[in-house]
Amino acid sequence: MTAAFTGVKVLDLSRLLPGPFCSMLLADFGADVVKIEDPNGGDYIRWWPPLLGNNSGFHIVLNRNKRSLTLNLKKQAAKDIFKQLAAEADVVLEGFRPGVMDRLGLGYKQLQAINPRLIYCAVTGYGADGPRAQRAGHDINYLALAGVLSYSGQEGNPTISGVQIADLGGGALYAAFSIAAALFARERLGKGQFIDMAMADGALTWNCLRWGKHLADGIVPTQGDDFLNHGFACYNLYQTRDGRSMSLGALEPQFWRLFCQTVGRPEWNQPNYFEPGPHQKELQQQIADLFASKDQAQWIRVFANADCCCEPVLHLDEAMRDEQILQRNMVVELLHERWGVYRQLGVAPKLSLTPGTIRSHAPELGEHTAAILAEIGVTEGAQEQLRADGVI
Fold it and tell me: Is the pTM of this model over 0.85?
């Protein structure tokens, strides 16, 4: 079966997490993603410990299904090669600060003149304009400035999410969606376009529910003030006797009723379970005392046949062994000639006609340089000279 993005060529200049996760999604669905890296080290994430073989585990997960080409874009010969590649490419993806590619002579306007059908996606912290456009930032900063952290966590104690919400949700996913949208638009319009994707912008839109509530009631959200952020007893985390935790999400009346029945506390099933007020703290404490009376494994058995939205908080290694996860092929075993057998995260969207696949391991730095240059007519002799000149 043909993958959804078969025939789409992506030149990926991005590093670390947001851009590589975006291009991984495209690669999983068939795009030919050429990861363009500096010959002197490449993507910084390659070398972050711990290592598996010669590369970081981070690199191995993020850069599957891609090819690696080394180019020193400070050299004119490398710029010429990049332009030659861009002339035939569908997408350029980069994550530099605004203006960097323009100063290299490889910005959108320069490349559009070469290839009007090119889609150019720039993933940045704060976007191409505005007072913070040139300011450095990371996931925690984007979430802080977007207001997300102000109502995350317990009262008076903002928390950092264990996953990078702004990098992945605000940047990578939006960028992948935007690239797909631009490819679709190109089929009708016949030309490419520039995508200005700011992670801070994307993170701001994750406030959609709380902003909608604020529009209606005018109340500024804070920690523990609502039914989805520790404010209600029916939607919370509770520690078990052995120091593990259970997640309770019994929002709807039928789920709450069944939860109360399952734990033998039918008196908790009162209409005010889903109303704000001081009674929520009292109910939370009662439920906390209940969960603290048994180990997590015991509670798993209690709720095994009770469809009331109560599930264990699994450690990552446990999640990777979970029966549901395995049946959905969300963890797959691969065999590398040097690393041996290792487990890779699966492809989340399940397309019936054009499914995504894992076809190759994350590349070594510059692993495909010779093959890619040969594809555009650069001879072996010319490649040797390019290496001698520090271009590749």
Answer: yes
